[in-house]
Amino acid sequence: MYRILIVDDEEILRMLISDTLEDLADVQIEAAEDGIQALAMLEKQEYDLMILDYMMPEVTGLELLNRLSPQMKARMKIIMLTAKAQETDRMKAMGAGASYYIPKPFSPLKLLELVEEILYGEPSKQE
């Protein structure tokens, strides 16, 4: 069973991402509405993948990444999903431990394909 944590302060985006991934095999999806809630969840449970918003109140996605242990970053893939499309922002996120960087607006199908590749090794062929 793969565990995915979605962290975004916008409920509509959490629902869109969750709905996009809900039909994946052997996947459990959980969501956090901010970085503080995500940190609490990460202390209690291991996840295979985290889809993380960059800009959130109180604890940003970048700050959350900086608080994670190197061991946690090594065992979990992290997709930074953000409206911050500057190269310097991408470099900061990747330097802090993000595995992938996807600017918003994003294609749900492209996100699904990336998640399938991360979890299963290759995207399924959608007809």
TrEMBL record:
GO terms of biological process kind: phosphorelay signal transduction system
PROSITE patterns recorded: RESPONSE_REGULATORY
Modified residue annotations for 4-aspartylphosphate: 53
Gene3D superfamilies: 3.40.50.2300
Positions in coiled-coil regions: none
Source taxon at top rank: Bacteria
Record SMART domains: REC
Keyword set includes Phosphoprotein: yes
Entry keywords, A to Z: Phosphoprotein
Keyword Cytoplasm annotated: no
Domain Response regulatory stretches: 3-119
PANTHER family linked to this entry: RESPONSE REGULATORY DOMAIN-CONTAINING PROTEIN, STRESS RESPONSE REGULATOR PROTEIN 1
Designated name of the protein: Response regulator
